[in-house]
């Protein structure tokens, strides 16, 4: 059901999120070690993943939407990059422990109820590389705020799952 909602969103447009990485996230590059691995959860069409792949990072990503993953893989090929993107649901996806220098959750968690968010965060924490204080992996979380136009319209379009979650 959730998959259908996202498929519809992506199929309606040529590009849902554009091609520029999130501007705050792009500054994380300076904090990452060379040769780090990046996991983008809810990778979408890959705007953030492409950015990190272009900087030389090994990037993996998952998304529940087949269309989004297909677009991301096409873009990756077009730019001669090697993003490993797969169709997977984060609620059942196992994140490999102690692996990633950066895990991205860009505008994803706001679609889950609190109980799922807690489970996802635990998995994410476990997936971050632990190399001592300075080199520990980072997590980037970005969520829509209440002023976001899409967020304002959401109650007309979607069912409420929990407080603040549609
Ligand atoms: C608002 S979009 C953000 C896309 C991308 N992170 C970006 O910032 O451009 C949310 C993404 O989460 C994906 N998504 C939603 N539920 C998911 C789930 N259960 N597992 C994996 N991906 C999911 C959607 O398909 C969609 O691509």
UniProtKB/TrEMBL annotation:
Keywords: Methyltransferase, Transferase. GO terms for biological process: methylation. One of its GO terms (molecular function) is methyltransferase activity. Residues 38-132 form the Methyltransferase domain. Signal peptide: none annotated. It comes from the Bacteria. This is Class I SAM-dependent methyltransferase. It comes from Peribacillus castrilensis.
């Amino acid at each position: 059901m959730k998959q259908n909602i996202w498929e519809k969103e992506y199929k309606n447009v040529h590009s849902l999120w554009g091609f520029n990485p999130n501007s705050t996230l792009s500054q994380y590059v300076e904090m990452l070690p060379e040769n780090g691995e990046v996991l983008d959860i809810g990778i979408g069409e890959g705007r953030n993943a492409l950015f990190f792949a272009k900087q030389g990072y090994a990037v993996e990503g998952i998304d529940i939407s087949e269309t989004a993953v297909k677009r991301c893989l096409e873009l990756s090929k077009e730019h001669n990059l090697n993003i490993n993107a797969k169709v997977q649901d984060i609620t059942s996806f196992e994140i490999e422990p102690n692996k990633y220098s950066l895990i991205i959750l860009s505008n994803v968690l706001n679609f889950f109820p609190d109980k799922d968010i807690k489970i996802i965060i635990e998995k994410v924490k476990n997936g971050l590389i632990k190399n001592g204080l300075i080199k520990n992996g980072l997590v980037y979380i970005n969520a829509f705020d209440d002023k976001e136009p899409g967020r304002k319209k959401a109650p007309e379009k979607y069912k409420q799952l929990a407080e603040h979650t549609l």
